[in-house]
Amino acid sequence: MNKERIAVIGAGGHAKVVASTLIAAGHEVVGFYDDDLQKRGTHIFGIPVIGPVGELNSDNFSHAIIGIGENEVRKRLVEKLNLNWITIIHPYAYVHPEVYLGVGTVVCAGAIVQPYSRIGSHVIINTKSSIDHDCCVEDYVHLALSHLAGGATANEGAFIALGSIVFPKVTIGAWATVSAGSVAMKDVMPNSVVAGVPARAIKEANLN
């Protein structure tokens, strides 16, 4: 693998995980960009927080990645910025060769992605999350120590929270949330929030 010079957008907790993943994979992190001006001049792993996102200068790096956990924020930044996005897999993750990963996606340490799954762009497959065979994960999804069983689908922007499980062939609608510790045994409507075992709606979908 070629060593790339990478800018990380964001300088919070998830940015630290993204940077550590980049470093573990042999890349160089040149700096962090965050709109919280109080972070300017601070350091993460000895690497500077250079300034706000508006000061990004692509002459200083070859690729960028977004180190922000909020799905809506990642989408807004991608639509605003014209950058070369890198896809990154931690060396302690397992991604089967017959898996498609979109640009800007992060596969963190301990994560597993099984064959014939298709993962969109700017997805977070967080620490020890697992995706079984033949799953479809669309853009801007975040899996946080959660599991998608075989043939499950997570539509754009869905958040599969800590310790949750999605049953085989179940679809999680766009921008829906499966709350921590929940088990989704049937399809979840877009924009809704479900919780419990089995998961039931605690916030109904707003389709207006």
Structure description:
Helix content is 11%, strand content 30%. The mean pLDDT is 95. It has helices at 13-24, 71-80, and strands at residues 5-9, 28-33, 43-44, 47-51, 63-66, 88-89, 94-95, 100-101, 106-107, 112-113, 118-119, 124-125, 130-131, 136-137, 142-143, 147-148, 153-154, 159-160, 165-166, 171-172, 177-178, 183-184, 193-195, 200-203. The chain has 208 residues and is mostly beta strands. β3 (43-44) and β4 (47-51) form a beta hairpin. It folds into two domains: 5-80, Rossmann fold; 88-200, UDP N-Acetylglucosamine Acyltransferase, domain 1 (3 Solenoid). It is globular. It is built from two helices and 24 strands.
Keywords:
208 residues; globular; UDP N-Acetylglucosamine Acyltransferase, domain 1; 2 helices; mainly beta; Rossmann fold; 2 domains; eight-stranded mixed beta sheet
Q: Any idea of the CATH class of the largest domain? A: Mainly Beta
β-strand amount:
25-35%
Taking all residues together, what is the mean pLDDT? 95
CATH homologous superfamily placement of the largest domain: Hexapeptide repeat proteins
Q: What is the CATH architecture assignment of the largest domain? A: 3 Solenoid
The helicity comes to 10-25%
Task: Write down the Rg.
Answer: 17 Å
Structural class: mainly beta
Which descriptor suits the 3D outline? Answer: globular
**Strand ordering within the main sheet:** 6-9-12-15-18-21-23-24
Q: Which residues form runs of ≥5 with pLDDT under 50?
A: none
CATH topology of the largest domain: UDP N-Acetylglucosamine Acyltransferase, domain 1
Got a strand count?
A: 24
- Note the run of SSEs as H and E: EHEEEEHEEEEEEEEEEEEEEEEEEE
